[in-house]
Specification:
Component of the KEOPS complex that consists of Kae1, Bud32, Cgi121 and Pcc1; the whole complex dimerizes. The chain is an alpha+beta fold and 206 residues long. The protein has 5 helices and 10 strands. A 5-stranded antiparallel β-sheet has the order 1-2-3-5-4, covered by helices on one side. Residues 5, 7-10, 12, 23, 25, 64, 78-81, 85, 121-122, 124, 133-134 line the site of adenosine-5'-diphosphate (ADP).
């Protein structure tokens, strides 16, 4: 069992599962949380993640296959996507793929799902496809306000982690997003994003 990544929330291991490589994701105990609440949160996010990762396949979102779930250990064993997180790709490729990311986020929103943690590390590029992972904070919602929160987060991530290419990335993201949600929903969401920014709870991004 090889430790691949120590995430903010979980440890990611590369393991063997029935003869093939697989990913083991274990949510870690947070010492600062009350132990009862902590185990409840980890269990809840493990359930949410394993269910949603499979559900979104029917919308046409590429995700890893779930092989096994162990709620007692807050662990999920899933297919390894052998590509690279978008975050680690060359700038020109990230700019290109932002359109596809926008398209995928639009599909989720259209189907009443917000991802809840849209970062460029939660999209993996493999064999010309963009896979989506990390659904522990996802929520079923058709509210435009919730969808706008997803957009605000990815915009902030682009601005902080990919500052040099932010403008082209955001433009491409929005064009992909608009292509799936349509012009009416698009305008509504964009207005809410501007409104959130103008409230000053967040710093305005460009
Ligand atoms: N199924 C997978 N296939 C390949 N890499 C993965 C897979 N799941 C997670 N990873 C890698 O581990 C990192 C952290 O996993 P993630 O599920 O996003 O956990 P966290 O909640 O800690 O962010 C990802 O950014 C990715 O690099
Ligand atoms: Mg993640």
């Amino acid at each position: 069992m090889k430790l691949l990544k120590k995430g903010a929330e979980a440890d990611i291991y590369l393991i063997q599962w029935e003869g093939t490589r697989a990913i083991l994701k274990i949510r870690k105990t947070k010492k600062y949380r009350n132990p009862v609440l902590d185990s409840k949160i980890r269990k809840q996010r493990t359930i949410r993640e394993s269910q949603t990762i499979s559900e979104v396949k029917s919308f046409g979102i590429p995700t890893p296959l779930v092989y096994n779930v162990d709620l007692k250990k807050s662990a999920i064993i899933m297919q390894e996507i052998q590509g690279k997180p978008i975050h680690d790709l060359p700038d020109s490729k990230i700019i290109d793929l932002c359109k596809e990311i926008g398209r995928l986020v639009g599909i989720m929103h259209k189907n009443g799902l917000m991802h809840g943690d849209l970062t460029t590390s939660n999209f993996i590029y493999f064999k010309n496809q963009v896979f989506v992972i990390d659904f522990g904070l996802s929520q079923k919602t058709i509210k435009s306000e919730d969808h706008a929160v997803d957009l605000r987060l990815i915009k902030e991530i682009l601005n902080s982690a990919h500052a040099k290419i932010m403008k082209s990335c955001w433009k491409n993201f929005l064009s992909g997003y608009k292509s799936t949600v349509g012009p009416t929903k698009y305008s509504k969401i964009i207005n809410i994003v501007s409104e959130i920014e103008s409230r000053g709870r967040y710093a305005t991004v460009i």
